[in-house]
Amino acid sequence: MVNFPIEMEKKTLRTLEFDKICQKLAGFTDFTPSRDLALHLAPSGSFHTAREWLDQTTEARLLLETEQHTSIGGARDIRELAKAAKRGVILVPGDLLDIKSTLVAARRLSRQFERSALEFPYLSEIALGLPAPTGLVDAITNTISDKGEILDSASEKLGQIRSQVQITHGRLLTRMQKLLNNDRIAPYLQEALVTQRDGRYVLPLKAEARGRVKSVVHDVSSSGATLFVEPLQVVDLNNEWRELQVAEKEEERRILADLSARMGDHERDLIAAVDTLAALDLVFAKAKYAEELEAVKPELARFKSEQKETNPGLTMKLWQARHPLLDPKMVVPIDVEMDTETYILLITGPNTGGKTVTLKTVGLISCMAQAGLHIPALEGSSVSFFEDIYADIGDEQSIEQSLSTFSGHITNIIHILEKANQKTLVVLDELGAGTDPQEGAALAQAILTYLVERGIPTLVATHYPELKAYAHATPGVVNASMEFSMETLKPTYHLTVGLPGRSNALYIAERLGLQPEIIEYARKEIDPANLQAEDLLNEIHRQRNLAHDARAEAEQAHHRAEELRRILSERLDAIEDERIEVLNEARQQAQAEIQELMDELRKARRQLALARQPLEVVEEVEETIREAEAKVKPPVRRQKVTEELPPVTQRPIKLGDKVRLRTLGKEGVVSSLGEEQAEIMVGNLRIRVDLYDLELASKQPEKPQVEVKTDAVDFRTPSPGVELSLRGMTVDEALEKLDSYLDRAYISGLPYARIVHGKGTGKLRDAVRREVSRHPYVDRFEPGGVKEGGDGVTVVFLVKG
Questions:
Q1: What sign does the dihedral 168-172-175-181 (CA atoms) show?
Q2: Are the C-beta atoms of residues 25 and 57 closer than 8 Å to each other?
Q3: Which residues are registered as beta bridge partners of 382?
Q4: pTM above 0.70, yes or no
Q5: Which is it for strands 424-429 and 388-392: parallel, antiparallel or unpaired?
Q6: Per-residue burial over 458-494, b = 16 or more CB atoms within 10 Å of its CB, e = otherwise
């Protein structure tokens, strides 16, 4: 469920435009309750809650990536309906269908998270708030159709009434049709049709024929020329039909009342379902918003308590951070890094150079992180968890309070300084502006000193050059600047941490064509020490740009190398995939050949038995085949081959050669030789095999071995055979034996198996197919072929290990 945050100052959230983030987030929700949660989302005041929210968003992104169909589709805000039902209000069919749709969505998500509780523990914990099945869905389904109509089967009485309604209605229409065609009545009718007035069937009688037909007048046309009359012959049928309709409505009302009362009995479950669905949908919305922003999960850090008394131990590392509300194609990413000894960042730079955007970016990203939102930055970005954030940004002039811009700022700063501490973040834009520059600079420096001495994390933007030197000389404070292009005479919006902004006024004036003598005179008026400092700062910026360019080239080279490595890795992966495919095909072929050989041996056994010949040789070969089948290796896994296979050569096999069957390990003599196959006499048994399965018995080369380095357990288990007979067993006995057999078949690497259950009544067959349809080791199944036993056999195909 949603944990309610300790409220940050709403004024700060508005100043940083967090409310606009909430509006963006609300656009990704799927129904009203979750939209309300999104619009009222606020940063959490609990470190553990904020971390949990971030983990929930991470899980939701993974879930929506792997299972894109996941949603709360069909859910409605039924909380007011549940409360109304509790009060005894009778709900209409449409309202009940909304309740059903919501409960179905809750049931679907509940089952989904039950299955994936280990993979998505945080989302599964939220889903625990979804109510257990209460039978309400079935109750509504059995009562109301998808079109919102009460079913005839809703009650026995309703079915009987509706049946009588149909019969009576049919008799009534038949009677009306006869009257319509009656020679005594037809001439007086305005037209030959049956219509209705006030729910009763009537005929259109000419006004001048009043009294000609014994009837009851129900209506008159607007012209007065037509009377709509009910002939006396059908009054009783009309009454009966109307009475049945009233009875039908009463029974429908009773049914809806009973169903509504049942909804009211489960009021808490229905409200809990909506609240939990809203909480899940909010997390899904956070995940979707993160995908749109191409955001990452930030590392939320506590303040390092082991730091010095005045140093709060701030963590602030934002890489390529972007303001989430600006056009991603236009916004310039910034890097903000403050080491463990720094907790105040002083930003200088030209007007419209991006100082305010930088302040808002850092403040807004901090709010987003504590609200469980992923941030638009690169992986590895981290930020401290703040107990509160205070901001003074923009024009604080108040006409109502008759305060100037300067007074508005100072009033706000007074409030901030009273509440801020070492675990809060203070954001101040244009500190000391709006008054005399000398006094403003002195006041700004005094406020900074106050913040430094109390170890309060702060971000400050200013125009005052005096504060550059102050930041350079004061421990805990670091200069930063918004870069300015000397070529284009425009700001670049890049943030440089560690260097103060340069004074560009004289250079810009000179570039724009101001008279040289004026420029020279201005230079003489500037303190030489300041000029020397500016020249040194220019050189530092130049060297930094050179280093930056060199680093960019090195990174490009690194990226090229990584791309080549990736391409090579993909090629090696493709080769490995091909190797695995070839080996697995060979393994499956070997199994098929062994099975074929077993079939031939069974035929030979039957023939020898009929001929009353000894079976010892057949039994010996059959046992050898079983051993060979057990030795067939399981599916090959991705492994690194440490040595190549040595080449194996032998001379061509000839008639009369003594050869060895590789798969059986038996020796025999070649009695017949073809292009691809040969007949081998093994004792008294004649066997036909492929040539590649033979090797000369003398000077037999050692079987090449592949040394594989792996920590995997050897799963080579004797094969249980490709056929399992369950005939004559009870369902329970058969299913227990089937489960054990499928485990052994999977472990031994069998690709498929035949389950013989017989036809009979079909009970055992249905139980077997129901079991294999949900068995984790079964990929698919199908009935046996005509020669395999038809519907008395189920062929299962096992998943590849």
A1: negative
A2: no
A3: 299, 317
A4: no
A5: parallel
A6: bbbbbbbbebbebbeebebbbbbbbbbeeeeeebebb
Amino acid making up residue 619: E
Q: pLDDT digit string (tens) for 499-519?
A: 776 666 676 777 778 888 887
Q: Exposure string (b/e) for 547-569, b if CB count within 10 Å is 16 or more?
A: eeeeeeeeeeeeeeeeeeeeeee
Q: Please report which helix (H) or strand (E) contains residue 160, including its range.
A: helix 156-180
Question: pLDDT digit string (tens) for 447-481?
Answer: 999 999 999 999 999 888 778 888 888 888 988 88
What torsion do the CA atoms of 419, 482, 351, 470 make, to the nearest 10 degrees? Answer: 60
Structure tokens at 470: 């102050």
From its phi and psi, is residue 531 left (phi > 0), alpha (psi between -120 and 50) or beta? alpha
Other CB atoms within a 10 A radius of the CB of residue 364 amount to: 27
What is the chain's Cα-based Rg? Answer: 43
What is the tens place of the pLDDT at every residue in 541-557? 555 666 667 777 877 88
Q: How many residues does the chain have?
A: 801
How far is residue 721's CA from residue 599's CA, in Å, rounded to a whole number? 12
Q: Tokens standing for 412?
A: 């706000």
Token pair listed for 669: 């003599």
Name the 3-class secondary structure at 3.
Answer: coil
From its phi and psi, is residue 200 left (phi > 0), alpha (psi between -120 and 50) or beta?
Answer: beta
Tell me the CA distances in angstroms from 243 to 177, 237, 254, 447, one per residue in order: 21, 10, 16, 87
Q: What is the DSSP string of 729-787?
A: --HHHHHHHHHHHHHHHHHHT-SEEEEE---TTSHHHHHHHHHHHT-TTEEEEEE--GG
Alpha helices, H only, 294-429 = 355-370, 405-419
Helix (H, G, I), strand (E, B) or coil at 680: strand
Q: 149: which DSSP letter?
A: P
Would you give the DSSP letter of residue 225?
A: S
- Cα angle 8-9-10, degrees, rounded to a multiple of 5: 105
